[in-house]
User: Fold these one by one.
Assistant:
Number 1:
Amino acid sequence: MKKARCINKEKSVNLFYNRKMRKWYFTVYFLSNGLVAAFYGWHDNFIYIIERRIMKTGQSYSSKLPIYYIILGGIHMSDLSNKVMLTIATTGAYPIKKHNPSVPLDPPEIAEDILACAEAGASICHIHVRDDEHKASMSFDKFKEVVDAVRPHSNIVINLTTSGGTGWPDDVRMKPFQVLHPEVASFDCGTMNWQRTGIFENHPKFLEKLGTEMQKHDVKPEIEVFDPGMIYNALDLQKRGFLKPGPLHFQIVMGVKGGIDATVDNLVWMHSLLPKDATWGAVGIGHGQMPIMLATLAMGGHLRVGMEDNVMMKKGVLAKNNVEFVKRAVDLIHLAGKEVATPDEAREILGVENKTKIALGK
Ligand SMILES: [Zn+2]
C-alpha cells in the first residue's frame, strides 16, 4: 500500500494502490466545525465511514488521522480478501422436475428461487431459462422476465448464461447480456463433446465476437473452463485483445463427461495454470461436488452451488431446494473461517459496477 499524496492538515486526500487487487483507493477527511468525516472508496463503490468527533485537541489530533485511516483501510482490504463469492446456479440447461421436483423452470419460479437464495446469502445468480416445454432455451423474453422480477427486490449480482443449450445462433446467445446489462455473463472458452449427447460448440470466431461484445457492453466474462486447454484459449484471446486487459475471472467446471474429471488433484493442477492475478471459482458435478467445494474453499477460490450442477445434496439424497445448497455452502464458508461476500463485495472483487442500480435508475 503506497501513500501518494497529502494536501494539507485540514483537508487531506490520500491515494493508495493495492497491488493484490490492482486497484486504487483513497481516503479523504475534512475538518470543519469540530467534525471529522472520512470517506473510503474503490472506484464507484463507496463505503462510507462517517466519524463524528469533537475536536478538542485540534492540530495534534488531526495529525494522527492519516495513520488511523491507513490502518482502517488495511483492515478493510484484508476483509475483502477473506470473502467468498457464492454463486447460485438455480436451473441450468438440463435438470427437469423428474430429476428433482424443486428445480425452478418457469421465469416466475426461477426469480422467486433466486430471491430466496439471495436472502439465504448468495452473492451472485447465474441464470438459465427454459422454453414452454422446459427444454434448454436462449429466449430473450424469458431472460428479461427473470431479470425484471429479480432486480427490484434484490441487489444480487446478475450473471447470464450465453450458452443455454446447443446450436443457438451467435446473436441469440448474445442478446440477453447486450440488452439486459448484467454485471457478468458466461464465456465458455472452447468446444467439447457434451456428456454423451452432443457437441458444445464455441467456435473460435464466436469467442472473438463474444469477447468484443462483452467489452463493448461492459460485461465481465465469467470464463468457464471444462479442461486445461480452455485456460490457454482465454489467455490467447486476452493477448489478442478479445478479452479486456486486467484480471480475468474463471469458473472451473469439473465432472462433465467430455471435460476434466472432478478430482482434487485435477483442481490443483487447473488452478496452477491460472494467471496469478485471476479471480476464480470451481464447481464439481456429481461425485465431485463436495471434494471440489471443500478444496476450493481451502485454496482461496469462490463457490458455485445449485441444481444446474447437482440435484442431490449427497449420494441418494435429493436436495429439498436450491436454498438448501446455499445454506450448506454458507455454513462451510463460516467453518473455514471465511465470510460470504455480499453482492456489493462481489462487485468489488470482480471490479464491476452495480448494474442493478443503473437499471433501476438509482
Ligand atoms: Zn450455466
Number 2:
Amino acid sequence: MATMRTRRRRTRAATERRRGARSNAPAPPIVELDQATVVYPGGHVGIERVSLAVDRGEFIFLVGPTGCGKSTFIKLLIRELEPAGGAVRVAGRDINEMSHNRIPNLRRRIGTVFQDYKLLPDRTVYDNVAYSLRVTGGTRADIKRKVPDILRLVGLAGKINNYPEQLSGGEQQRVSVARAFVNHPPLLLADEPTGNLDPATSIGIMQLLYRINRTGTTVVVVTHDKTMVDKMRRRVIELYEGRVIRDQAAGLYAEDESTTEFGVRVRSELGIGEGHTNGDPGGHPEQ
Ligand SMILES: Nc1ncnc2c1ncn2[C@@H]1O[C@H](COP(=O)(O)OP(=O)(O)OP(=O)(O)O)[C@@H](O)[C@H]1O
Ligand SMILES: [Mg+2]
C-alpha cells in the first residue's frame, strides 16, 4: 500500500512537471468565482459578489442556513443559472462565454448529485446508471463494462435489478452518486447528499465521496450538517445571505488516511458505533 501511494505521488509529480514543461503557468483552479452575483427574476439576490477558488483534487464543504445560496452556487457551476455580474470559470474557462452547444460537454465533465436523487422510477438500478452513460454518448461496450464497475464501487452490486422504490434512502442516494460518477468527471458536486439520511448512513455516503476524491476528483459537498463537517477536517466554505462569511482551510489530518481509516475516525469522533454500517459501501478493496 505504502509503495502504491508513493508511486501515485511520483506519477502526480511527473504530470505536474510535464504540465510545467509545456507552459510556465500553473494549472488554473478547477472552479473560480470572481465577484459572482446571481439575481433571480423578481429581484431576489441568490448569491452576492462571491469570489473563491477550488483547486484540483480538493474536498470542500459548502455550508450555511437554508436560503443562503448553496444550491444557487451549484446551479451556477453547471450553467443552469447565469450570473448577473462577475465571472464563473471552470478549469480556467469562463463558462458563460461558452456557446450553447458546448454546455452538454461542460455538464459531462461535472457529475451532479441532487438532494432528491432524481432517479427514474420505472428503471432498474442498472438502467438508471446506464441511462446517464447513454445520454452522454457512451457506447454499448462502455455501458456493459462501466455500470457493473461503478455499482460495485458504491456497494450495490447485489441490487442491480431493483427498482428505486425497492431501495432504502441511503441506497437510492448511492445510485445517484454512481450515476454522477460513472463518467469519472474531474468535478463532482453533491447538493445535500445526506439530507434525509441517519448519521450512520450519512457517514457511509461521505466515505464514498471521500473514496471518489482519492481517485483525484474534486468534490464539493453541500450540507447542513456542520457537526459532521467540522469532524471531517476538510476545507469549509460558509455562506450567509448569499455571501461567503467563512473560508476555512482543512484542519489537520493524515494526508494518507485510507478510506477505511477515515470512516473509523469520523465514526468514532461522532460517537457512532461500528455496528451501524447500512450506508457503508465497505468491504471493497482500497482505491
Ligand atoms: N427560482 C427562484 N426564484 C426566486 N428566488 C429564488 C429561486 N431559487 C432560489 N431563490 C431564492 O434564492 C435564495 C437562495 O436559494 P438557494 O436555493 O440557493 O438556497 P440554499 O442555500 O440551497 O437553501 P436550502 O438549504 O434550503 O436548500 C433563497 O432566498 C431562495 O428563496
Ligand atoms: Mg439548496
